[in-house]
Amino acid sequence: MGNLNRFHEFALVNRLTKALERNPRQLNRTHQSDAEIVRLPDGTLLAATVDGLHEEYNLGLLRDPFVLGWCAVSQSLSDLAAVAATPLGVLLAVNFPRGSEESWQEAFFSGVNAVLRDHGTFCLGGDTNFSPEPGFTCTALGIIDLPAPLQRTGARPGDSLYITGFLGTGNLLGIASEVDKVLWAKLEKEYRPRARLRESRALAPYVSCAIDTSDALLQGLAIISDLNDVGMVFEHRPELYSPPLVQMVEKIRFPLWLVNVFGMGEYELVLGVPAQKEEEFLARAGFEKIPVMRIGQVVREPGIILNIDGKSFQLDVPYLLNLFGTCSDIKTYLKALATYDAKLRGTA
């Protein structure tokens, strides 16, 4: 199995949790699935996940209270989607900005209510406080009624890689926040990422592994690669991306493929599909009107290869995934990414 300790976030998790005793009923090991999976005494598979919306607020990428409420919930529901679970409900722990108006607080919970209704689930309870450092945390619970849970493990050389929708819809917001504040404000008001719950349950019988892209595509591919001791070939092409994003990066001359590194992902699912099930997979996706797109293939040699403009490049994945933590702000980060691309492709 590969070494996820190469990536700062995973090294931190591994260091802090190495002494914790795991429930003997838990089916997944650390990092093996987007949600934790526990077999209850009656045989039911419970999926549980928790995620926080903090950095996006503190960096100024998300500030609209309705959108914050929506995203706080949808990011955790997306983890349930990646294990093909049906939601039971969510628990919220909210630290409102100290001094926030009642209208701001109510708008946040209007967003929560809207996303719950949209995904057909409920708020089971939670905790509410005020803090000089706001934060919005959601725990989601679900039931898996498949013969075996969908996890990040299971990828094999020869599997095709598919995505359930356009890449880059989240990072469109991140880039716009630096280059066009008027556009950013408009995009934020319209931002409604959906968890692919229906899609994952429909396609799970044909899938070898799955991960969501809430932390961007590259991290998802790196996790699957390391957990399964395989490599990934990502076949970049403009049709995979949100059209407004393509227009923006062309305008500012930023390399399009790099939006798969920037950590504000799009809540889509990456699905590994074995060759012998690919025809059935595509037929079911067509029947369910799920706009899947092929993005690459699992290969035997570990690592991640970028295919772009008829050429192939081996990516320095640890550098790319650890880069944000070394930069003072988003503008510096975007510049460092562009410099990496120029050196990689010999255009510096």
Key descriptive features of the protein:
60s Ribosomal Protein L30, Chain: A, 348 residues, 5-stranded mixed β-sheet, alpha+beta, single chain, Phosphoribosyl-aminoimidazole Synthetase, Chain A, domain 2, 7-stranded mixed β-sheet, 12 helices
Task: Report on this structure.
This protein is an alpha+beta fold and 348 residues long. It contains twelve helices and twelve strands. The strands form two sheets. The chain has a seven-stranded mixed beta sheet with strand order 7-9-6-10-8-11-12, with helices on both faces. A five-stranded mixed beta sheet has the order 1-2-5-3-4. Helix 3 runs parallel beside helix 4 (102-119) and helix 5 (169-179) runs parallel beside helix 9 (243-252). The radius of gyration is 20 Å and the shape is globular.
